[in-house]
Amino acid sequence: MATATATKKNTASWDPAEVKKELLAKYPAKVARKRAKQIMINEALGNETPEISANVRTTPGIITMRGCTYAGCKGVIMGPTRDIVNITHGPIGCGFYSWLTRRNQTQAPEGSENFMPYCFSTDMQDSDIIFGGEKKLERAIQEAYDLFHPKSIAVFATCPVGLIGDDIHTVTRRMKEKFGDCNVYAFSCEGYKGVSQSAGHHIANNQVFRHIVGENDEPKAGEFKINLLGEYNIGGDGFEIDRILKKCGITNIATFSGNSSYDQFASAHQADLNTVMCHRSINYVADMMETKFGIPWIKVNFIGAQATAKSLRKIAEYFGDRKLTDRVEAVIAEEMPLVEAALKEITPRTAGKTAMLFVGGSRAHHYQELFAELGMRTISAGYEFAHRDDYEGRQVIPTLEVDADSRNIEEIEVTADEKRYRPRKSDKELKALAKSGYQFKHYDGLIPDMEKGTLVIDDLNQYEAEKLVELMQPDIFCAGIKEKFSIQKLGVPMKQLHSYDSGGPYAGFKGAINFYQEIDRLVNSRVWSYMKAPWQANPQLSATFVWE
Amino acid sequence: MLLRHTPKEITERTALTINPAKTCQPIGAMYAALGIHGCLPHSHGSQGCCAYHRSTLTRHYKEPISASTSSFTEGASVFGGQANMLQAINNIFSVYDPEVIAIHTTCLSETIGDDLKQIRKKAQDEGKVPAGKTIIGANTPSYVGSHVTGFASMTKSMAMLAEPTGKKNGKVNVIPGWVEPADMEELKRMMGLIGVKYIMFPDTSGVLNGPLSGEFKMFPAGGTTVAELKSCGDSVGTLALGEWCSAEAGRWLDANCKVPCKVLDMPFGLAATDRFIEALRTIAGVTIPEEISHERGQLVDMISDMHQYLYHKKVALVGDPDQLVAMTEFLVSLDMWPTHIVTGTPGSRFEKRIREITKDLPYGVNVKAAGDMFLLHQWIKNEPVDLLIGNTYCKYIARDEDIPYVRWGFPILDRQGHQYFPTVGYKGGIRLLEKILGVLMDRLDRDAPETSFELVM
User: Fold this and answer.
1) Smallest Cα distance from A514 to chain B, Å
2) Which of A114, A126, A147, A159 would you mutate first to test chain B, the one with the most B CBs within 10 A?
3) Handedness of CA A441, A446, A451, A452 (dihedral sign)
4) Distance CA A382, CA A371 (A)
5) Which chain A residues in 71-130 lie under 8 Å from chain B, judged by CB atoms?
6) Pairing relation of β-strands A120-121 and B17-18?
7) B159, B187, B204: which is the final residue of a domain?
């Protein structure tokens, strides 16, 4: 690798209070007051985690990284579903922009259904807005059914649908009854709902839980059955996790929703443990499945080799089976040497460098593991659409305020399923696990894992990102496509952690090695030394040219 | 197969669009607005619209796309977005300090009936617009037209800044339409060679094809200035390139500022470029310099040199109307056979125009406005082609059907070059030919038996 910037030591020193002051300096007073609560200096406050304001509205006019509820619902959660015909009900744009742009890979066996390369839309016209779009939606569902005979059709509302009052749920219910062999349902995920994509995740997951989970009681074969919740198979992350699970002898019944199929969702109630990757997008589904079916849940993280090993051990400990425990240890022992070899080779070039992560609802936390393995420090991080519990830990959930924007996101009332509820562990077993320090339904959030004096910033915007890079001079910045090039123009490498640029997988053991190599490539690339032409670096002409 | 569910048999669809060949108005308005110097496009709608447009434009240009949004919530959707927009205007001028804010609406703000004009007036009245700063606006409901219509509407809003003084400025307004920054640069180069004084709007060159220099300039040096836009009402005439993208702005100047407008096709290919150059010659009363004739001759030379590889090759095309009209004419002029032509943008004028261009061909051309790529794929299955031209989404069809494929149009998400190498004008024609010949001849090489594998082609 090049040494061009390897010699550049990070010499930037900063006072977090000064940085915060600078970030707020240019704002009108009202905006500054609001942002001040979302920019938090991570400092010890006795035994308490400092409080941050999150899941609140973005201020109009401030260039935000956030998207909308539709994007969270149709794009993120339902995007990776390959055998459901996902029809966007609205003008053409929303369907177009969410068409194949998220890099969630899928492995559809030849001859099986895969609608992911397709975009389906009702392409509403002004007459539909004026006279209502229900008839057109009904025809569109019929046309999709006649053309493809899918097992399931899902309908997604865009902004105008809610405004003109199209009753998409009645239409889909009617079509479901009409077809008999096709599950049809709808998502009220209008873009104006909530304050970010997060509301869309919730709306999507609620409907998957309500309309699909538990539909298939045909027993699934396999030992040590788990579900993997909140893993979207970006760049093949899910494939790598599945490879490892399989090698360990753990059966993954359903991934929500990377590389998923309808049948996996429908059979998910057969799992004996729910493992939650992305806490933000899906923790409530784990809760609902526990109440309804008796499946306990744990937080896992397969981003980072150490984190992967830890998560595997946690799964094995739950099942308490010697054979499984031994196999998990054998797998870790087999996989780790390659990881260690890669680190030994790469770490000398990355150690001591600094990173910033502003992405998602869990990745800004998870990816700190990988940077730590590379000897790099995360000096500032924050989420695009997370809630306070993702920053401060689940203990704050009972104290979260319900405001005008969260009130309209449905919370489903769940009770135990008469037929399917089955406690997976006896009280005695649970007590024994608890006694040994095993934690169910537990997540401490991002803040406790960050160093003191770092900055935790919620809903970072373009202006603040530029300022932050200027003041704290990180060696790498991680966010999404919209941020990619404004950061790189500053001469700082930028890694997309939504789409991974074109890379991945970064999960699991092989993924960790990929990530080490990718970060090595980025922070040590020669390109960052080419910013200035020779005549720009030395504008003074000190001699005339001599022909020899 | 990636598009394994697309059947050969074509059934009528009246409600379901599959694999669209268009997107919505606001993204066109945003792209156009980026061609004004110092302009921040503003999306009056919910956050997602702006995020989607910025993402798509960023993936296509590999450049930062700065744009703001009114960040509608459910409350704003019920009570109207005026408060959000006024707050946005205040924040934008405080934090980003652009010269211009170019507001476009969305299906959300249009459905609830927000009155853009009235809100802009209120912002002015309340002193939220600093002296010397400009706000323009365009109505771009997503349920009308397409991204092309949105581009045209925002371009018209630029023309509406014209402040005729009664004294001619001796310049020609050139409205290039939705072409690449490189194309805009090439048009300026050609006009410079010819010696025509011009005002070109919008102009994204110098905005969306910027250098990497260690600095981030939110408002780069390029773009048409407000002073130029004010002056366009004093121009001697307007050349509007593209009926769909540019005519509206040109005609508005004609009707309101008495600047005569001539609508031309976009100058892609030989004949359309000839007409563009001829128009410049007549308007400016100049002799066309030898350099331009030389470039033309080079294009003709390449056509004649390579004619055997082009002759009667069938082509499927998908894209935007102005581009397709010019490209179809170019293909016919190469003795190629445009066979299936689809645009997602509605309007029967398109089909009529394509039929005129192809009327002498010995077969019936499949052409559809308000069509989609699912239909195009079905047409291809029924009548295979030798070449496919369109945006990146075509790669799924090209792979499944094993068709040589040239990326041309919007968006191109997986290849480079469109930012830097023009396809307008004679030099652009040479580049188009190079691309077309490249894929056709790669295919010959790939499929040739060893006995007839050619060194010299």
Assistant:
1) 22
2) A159
3) negative
4) 15
5) 71, 87, 90-101, 113-115, 117-126, 128-129
6) antiparallel
7) B159
Does A64 touch chain B if contact means CB atoms closer than 8 Å?
A: yes
To the nearest whole Å, the CA of A378 is away from the closest chain B CA by 22
Whether A68 is a known active-site residue: answer yes
CB B394 within 8 A of CB B414: no
**Structure ipTM:** 0.98
pLDDT for B406-436, tens place per residue? 999 999 999 999 999 999 999 999 999 999 9
For residues B66 and B201, state if they share a domain. no
CATH number at residue B443: 3.40.50.1980
Length of chain A: 548
Q: Residue B281 is encoded by which pair of tokens?
A: 């010659």
Say if residues B306 and B392 touch (Cβ distance below 8 Å): no
Residue B339 included in any domain: yes
Q: Quick check: B4 and A114 CB within 8 A? A: yes
| In-domain check, residue B167 | no
Q: Does residue B275 sit in the same domain as residue B340? A: no
CA torsion sign for B22, B27, B32, B34 is negative
pLDDT, tens digit, 9 for 90 and up, residues B25-80? 999 999 999 999 999 999 999 999 999 999 999 999 999 999 999 999 999 999 99
Task: Report the number of distinct structural domains present in chain B.
Answer: 3
CB atoms within 10 A of CB B454: 9
**Annotation says A12 is catalytic:** no
Judge if B312 and B296 occupy the same domain. Answer: yes
Number of domains in chain A: 1
What are the pLDDT digits (tens) for B201-241? Answer: 999 999 999 999 999 999 999 999 999 999 999 999 999 99
Q: How far apart are CA A57 and CA A39, in angstroms?
A: 15
Of B289, B313, B340, which residue sits at a domain end?
Answer: B289
* B chain contacts of residue A90, beta-carbon cutoff 8 Å: 107, 142
Residue A486, chain B, CB below 8 Å: the answer is yes
Do both B323 and B421 map to the same domain? Answer: yes
**Residues of chain B found within 8 Å of residue A76, distances taken between Cβ atoms:** none
Whether residue A146 lies inside any domain: the answer is yes
Do the domain assignments include residue A82?
A: yes
Residue at B11 is within a domain: no
Q: Range of B196's domain?
A: 172-289
